[in-house]
Amino acid sequence: MTEQQRRPTLIDVAKAAGVSRALVSIVMRDAPGASEATRDKVLEAARELGYRPDTRARLLRSSRTKLLGLSFSSSQPFHAEIVDAAYAEAAAKGYEVALSAVANGRPETRAIEALLDFGSEALILISPTLSNQSLTRYASHVPVVSLLRENVGDLVDSVSSDDNAGIRMAVGYLAALGHRQIVHVDGGTAISAAQRRAAFHTEMLRHGLKPVTVPGGPSEEDGLRAGQLLQLDMPSAAIAFNDRCALGLMESLRANGLHVPNDVSVLGYDDSQFARLSYVQLSSISQDAPLLAAAAVDRAVDRIEGNQPPAHVIRTPHLVKRKTTARPRQSSLPGDQSRHQPSEG
After folding, report:
1. pLDDT digits 0-9 by tens, 271-292
2. Could you tell me which of 147, 135, 139 has the C-alpha nearest to residue 71?
């Protein structure tokens, strides 16, 4: 084992002092946010362990790093598309991007703290799940941009897609095709799920249709389970929470002998790389990953380089028509009330 590997870490000091890693980082950076008693306890633990701060990291923190920290979920392919676009936009502005994944066994707080340890001058958090209070606490140290979630308080920037507009397009498109029995396979507790669920209910009523919501989620497995729930009362069309959910739903329909779109039209959300595959060709609501990424990088850089207050940017999505949506069979056209709806949203 090398000397570098044997050196105590921030985590070692945190365990010895009985505090969080974030507090140890605050003390070592001599930043505000820790009481005198906590500082004394952390410094004493560091002395006993022989902890020595990384001089290179200290130098980075004392000067411009031109580094944007970006956290994302390793389980969400759409996040990867945003990451790709963020690299290009940051490079165009003379910045680099540091990535930190939120994954099983690696909570969001750890991902964020790693980005701060890298010397990130601003944080871009894709679909953050932390409380507004926690996000505000991080924003007291560096600018924080929440991407895909807008309800983050007044001290945190946000860049999001207009879910109301997206669902309005989805319902309007299917209704214009002649669909009257439309269900929404929702996103469960995922970010944006509640907004899309509420928007679906509003838009269906606006079209004089009965809003029906089926429990779902953000993964293919969630779509598969939702497909089984639909077997008792099959709609003519379904709007899935996202493209992954739509793929699972389509597989469930296929396994039960149904054809998309002849029997059921399926519309996804995100317009991810899965939707664009030649053998899938999923109709979807596009959130424009490159434009969202560009807007988030712009906000982060503007906050770093200027004195602008936090702002909330909302972009309008658009509909991409492919091969999984079509006019309904005659039995599903206006006037057919033979099918009983499975559940109401």
Report:
1. 999 999 999 999 999 999 999 9
2. 147
Buried b / exposed e along 33-48 (16+ C-beta atoms within 10 A): ebeeebeebbbebbee
Structure tokens, 10: 């921030």
Query: What is the tens place of the pLDDT at every residue in 202-216?
Result: 999 999 999 999 999
Q: What is the pTM of this model?
A: 0.76
Residues of the chain with CATH 3.40.50.2300: 65-161+289-315, 163-282+322-332
Q: Determine if the peptide bond prior to 128 is cis (ω within 30°).
A: no
**Distance between CA 139 and CA 285 in Å, rounded?**
31
Q: How many Cα atoms sit within 13 Å of 208 on the Cβ side?
A: 6
| Angle, helices 193-206/163-177, rounded to nearest 10 degrees | 40
Task: Give 256's contacts (C-beta < 8 A, 6+ positions apart).
Answer: 227, 231
Taking Cα atoms as reference points, which of 92, 5, 149, 125 lies closest to residue 294? 92
- Kindly report the number of other CB atoms within 10 A of residue 104's CB atom: 7
CATH architecture of the domain 65-161+289-315 equals 3-Layer(aba) Sandwich (3.40)
H runs (alpha helix) in the chain = 3-6, 10-17, 21-28, 36-49, 55-61, 77-92, 108-117, 132-139, 163-177, 193-206, 220-230, 243-255, 289-305
